[in-house]
Amino acid sequence: MKMMESSDDDERLYNYSLLFLYVSGICNLFILQFLQAPYGKHFSPRWGPAISPTLAWLLMESPSVFLTLLLFPRGLHSSSPRSLSLISLFLLHYLHRTFVYPFRLPPSSNKTPISIALLAFSFNLLNSYLQSRSISHYVDYDAEGGMGFWARFLGGLLVFLWGMSVNVRSDLALVRLRGEGRGYRVPRGGGLRGSAVLIILGRLLSGLGGLS
């Protein structure tokens, strides 16, 4: 597959995309102090037409798999064991979020507004582009010795696996409760009280592990 050259235009696009991600993250943090995201138990028909949560998750998360598989092989370091190790963790997480988790959701789950699904799709499009180009092309692997990289990678891998296990376990607990048809409830026992918070913690740990 033909590699993407690191032209001035390509590097400019990468830098502007990264800047946009940072700025939009700060803006979203501010906006969400006053606005409740309308999905799950907070679903609101005021946000327009809605689709099943399974279809919404497939739509939202799909760029993280397909765009990554399209862009990553075109990078300068795409065949490096280091870049392959890093992108494998990213893909492992999003393969689960795209093709496993959505099909575990019970049919009774609240629908998701298409507008929200498209916003999430846009974020994952941007994030996948940045992750793919960074790991396969713009990271300077020669700046760090081989042993130093692998020591950090193994430490990050442990954090990633811990976070993903927390994430998946909490997902399963909440999905099981929803499937009982008694509305939204907080799991109890087994350290799962507040599973919604644990899901966020698990995803944060997975992300930190991937960045280590």
From TrEMBL:
Protein name: 3-oxo-5-alpha-steroid 4-dehydrogenase C-terminal domain-containing protein
Transmembrane segments: 12-35, 55-72, 84-101, 150-170, 190-211
MF annotations from Gene Ontology: oxidoreductase activity, acting on the CH-CH group of donors
One Gene Ontology term, aspect cellular component: membrane
Keyword Thylakoid included in the entry's annotation: no
PANTHER family, per database record: 3-OXO-5-ALPHA-STEROID 4-DEHYDROGENASE, STEROID 5-ALPHA-REDUCTASE DET2
Any one GO BP annotation for this protein: brassinosteroid biosynthetic process
Membrane topology: Multi-pass membrane protein
Domain 3-oxo-5-alpha-steroid 4-dehydrogenase C-terminal positions: 110-190
Keyword Electron transport: no
Localization in the cell: Membrane
Keywords: Membrane, Transmembrane, Transmembrane helix
Family as reported in the entry's similarity comment: Belongs to the steroid 5-alpha reductase family.
